[in-house]
Design goal:
Helix content: 40-55%
CATH architecture: 3-Layer(aba) Sandwich
Largest sheet: 5 strands, parallel
CATH topology: Rossmann fold
Strand content: 5-15%
Number of strands: 5
CATH class: Alpha Beta
Distance between the termini: 46 Å
Number of domains: 1
Order of helices and strands: EHEHEHHEHHHHEHHHHHHH
CATH superfamily: P-loop containing nucleotide triphosphate hydrolases
């Protein structure tokens, strides 16, 4: 039996699909998705390791679950918090159970020699993507960013964008040489260089990655998200409009192009910029990367 010697903890919507496709392409890397169990209150080390009884003989075994970076609230704690939740409720990490540190220590106790992989993304782009993904889950007439950030899930997402706290915790638990941070914007602009750094960290040779093997998740068209938000502001649900409007169905792509505005307003972008700038200032020094060159709020 081989134990995972690398654990990818997230973030979601920060290159996870691309990384999985590269791991699948690389002859010396195997990846699995069993790491979700580190969030469970009934976690057992032996049960977790049983998942790897039939692993191959690859040099690198990566277990992946991108939700580990955000944390979790168990059902009892979730019910307690949601019962007294109001739109003014502040999520600061104390509500997470298990906490980020507890998850890190649980991983360390289970896999003492494993190395940690973390991918990050400009928080404004990350929240824009999260908002676009989540918008149809909001009440049909309340679909602004403020509406999202007034929900408990939205507040958790806003808090999760403070990458500095999470990465600092994992460096404290595992050591600086055992934590590798992948900047999505670097992965996009110079994938070869970013993957060479990753392979160096994983102690395997870099393998060329042809474009046809690369996989990326595609977000909803910005026009589609903007229409959903616009219709909600005048009391019409996008679901109702799409269902009963044959014009919308026939000319959807053209309509999306006409409304291809940013789903975030300038005020919302300014707010997010202010919210994350201090965290990113400290993070730049911690990981020795000039995040400003990639457009991160600073």
């Amino acid at each position: 039996m081989s134990e995972p010697n690398f654990l990818y903890i997230g973030y979601m919507k920060a290159g996870t699909t691309f990384l999985r496709s590269y791991f699948s392409h690389h002859p010396n890397i195997e990846w699995y998705r069993n790491a979700i169990v580190f969030l469970s209150d009934t976690f057992e080390r032996s049960t977790y390791l049983d998942n790897f009884e039939n692993t191959g003989h690859s040099k690198c075994i990566v277990d992946m679950y991108e939700g580990l970076a955000i944390g979790f609230i168990n059902h009892c704690r979730s019910d307690e918090i949601r019962h007294r939740f109001t739109p003014d409720y502040t999520v600061d990490g104390n509500q997470l159970e298990p906490s980020i540190e507890k998850i890190a220590l649980r991983i360390k106790d289970t896999l003492p020699h494993t190395k940690i992989l973390i991918s990050i993304r400009n928080q404004i782009d990350w929240l824009r993507s999260y908002y676009g993904h989540y918008i149809l889950k909001l009440p049909k007439r309340n679909r602004t960013l403020h509406d999202l950030l007034s929900t408990f899930d939205g507040k958790c997402a806003l808090y999760a964008g403070n990458y500095y706290g999470l990465i600092k915790t994992y460096i404290k638990v595992f050591g600086r040489d055992f934590v590798h941070v992948i900047v999505l914007e670097e992965l996009k602009t110079n994938p070869r260089e970013a993957l060479e750094k990753l392979c160096h960290f994983m102690e395997v040779d870099y393998v060329e990655f042809p474009a046809e093997r690369q996989k990326l998740n595609k977000a909803k068209p910005s026009g589609q998200r903007h229409i959903i938000k616009l219709l909600a502001s005048i009391g019409i649900s996008a679901e109702h409009f799409a269902k009963y409007s044959p014009i919308y169905k026939k000319y959807a792509d053209t309509i999306y192009q006409l409304f291809s505005h940013d789903i975030l307003t300038k005020h919302e972008i300014s707010m997010l910029h202010s919210f994350y700038s201090i965290s990113n200032y400290h993070l730049s020094g911690l990981i020795d990367v000039d995040l400003k060159q990639f457009g991160y709020p600073l």
